[in-house]
Design goal:
Length: 178
């Protein structure tokens, strides 16, 4: 089977990498007219942009032997007043499975970027704490990460960024029922 005739290449002038997806969605719509093309296109675009942004961040993070979830985890700790959160809070905020959070925490702990501490008034709970080494490490990669994250957002005017943020926040709180 010749796949070149089935899936067009996303190359050439005006190619966005999303061209193939657009064409596949059009075929789906032709085959199933009740198909809500606008909604699924939006869903696919959000996924595509999200993956693209993570891939771009991972290019920078690869140089420091880190990947995006590890970076997001230590950024969350950096964003708290005491540089600490519980593993369950991190899993809930990132929507990662607890087992993956635990694995990543182990890797970060081995590198000395975080440590685990028992909660004083409840020995059953553990806090993940960003170490001094972790703070220094994170601050050392900020310029490169801010450059990468700023490029995508910089493609939008301030008013567009505000509108997009408002709309994405609306989607986050919209429940989905089976």
């Amino acid at each position: 089977m010749n796949t070149e005739k089935i899936l067009p290449a996303d190359t050439g002038p005006g190619a966005t990498g999303f061209t193939t997806t657009d064409q596949l969605l059009q075929v789906m719509r032709r085959r199933f007219p009740q198909f809500d093309l606008s909604r699924l296109t939006l869903y696919c675009l959000i996924h595509f942009v999200s993956r693209e942004m993570v891939d771009e961040a991972n290019q920078v993070l690869k140089t420091v032997q880190l990947h995006y979830f590890s970076y997001a985890l230590i950024m969350m700790l950096y964003g708290t007043e005491n540089f600490a959160l519980t593993p369950s809070a991190i899993s809930a905020a990132t929507r990662e499975k607890p087992a993956n959070t635990s694995r990543i925490c182990g890797e970060l702990e081995e590198r000395g970027l975080i440590c685990r501490q028992r909660v004083l008034n409840d020995g059953r709970k553990t806090l993940l704490v960003l170490t001094h080494v972790g703070v220094q490490f994170l601050e050392s990669i900020f310029p490169d990460m801010l450059h990468v994250t700023g490029q995508k957002a910089g493609a939008l005017r301030a008013s567009e960024r505000q509108t997009l943020e408002r709309l994405l926040r609306k989607l986050i709180v919209t429940p989905v029922t089976p």
